[in-house]
From TrEMBL, chains A, B:
GO terms for cellular component: cytoplasm; nuclear envelope. The keyword Cell division does not apply. Residues 8-122 form the NTF2 domain. It comes from Salvia divinorum. GO terms for biological process: mRNA transport; protein import into nucleus. This is Nuclear transport factor 2B. PANTHER family: NUCLEAR TRANSPORT FACTOR 2. It is found in: Cytoplasm; Nucleus; Nucleus envelope. Keywords: Cytoplasm, Nucleus, Protein transport, Transport. Coiled coil: none annotated. Has a role in nuclear-cytoplasmic transport of proteins and mRNAs.
Length: 125, 125
């Protein structure tokens, strides 16, 4: 159970940040109408609003570099909790930004997963 | 639903870090046998092992200062996902350490909550 959750979480992280950096508009496919995103304290619900938020972020090209990925099975059957830390390099900026993000992934019932909970914070320090 | 979850999450955060800083041994009461803690990548399960880990951390006195608390209702009925960032000041150390931590809280059925998922990372940067 833990190994399976770990494989799901690690594969999700790779997929999510690859899409974010290369095909951001496609991220909408990972959310559903009940999904929640809290982005720097701003609460957004539903894949349409989440997609709008992600696509209107004030930068075009970026690169995520992942430092740590922690994964646990959740209390939902087949669910997975993922906790990520890393850095975000924006095009034209000298310094990268540290961030932390957590996801709660729920099985779709069709062999995939969607993001039920997503919380993102930049780490100032 | 969101407001109730938020109240639970904020109260939990206050309680958790107060206990951590003033009565660390009492933290065990917040976990149960299925609880999971991933501490700096180390995976620990069950309140007895989690308690052992927390009480054997290589510092005695510490102070957590919380910077941000984000809360969402989870996919579990009554469940709450909490995402915290802050800093940790160890006694005798000049600089504090930045950290991020997430909790998944599940209702006990008796009006309280226990921690099902707990993941902690120091943020180096």
């Amino acid at each position: 159970m833990e190994e399976q959750a770990n494989a799901v979480g690690v594969a999700f992280v790779e997929h999510y940040y690859h899409l974010f950096d290369h095909d951001r508009a496609a991220l909408v496919s990972l959310y559903n109408p009940t999904s929640m995103l809290t982005f720097e304290g701003q609460r957004i619900q539903g894949y349409d609003h989440i997609s709008e938020k992600i696509n209107q972020l004030p930068f075009d090209q970026c690169r995520h570099a992942i430092s740590t990925v922690d994964v646990q099975p959740s209390a939902v059957a087949g669910g997975v909790v993922v906790f990520v830390s890393g850095s975000l390099q924006l095009q034209g900026e000298e310094y990268s930004l540290r961030f932390s993000q957590m996801f709660h992934l729920i099985p779709t019932g069709e062999g995939g997963y969607f993001v039920q909970n997503d919380m993102f914070r930049l780490n100032y320090g």
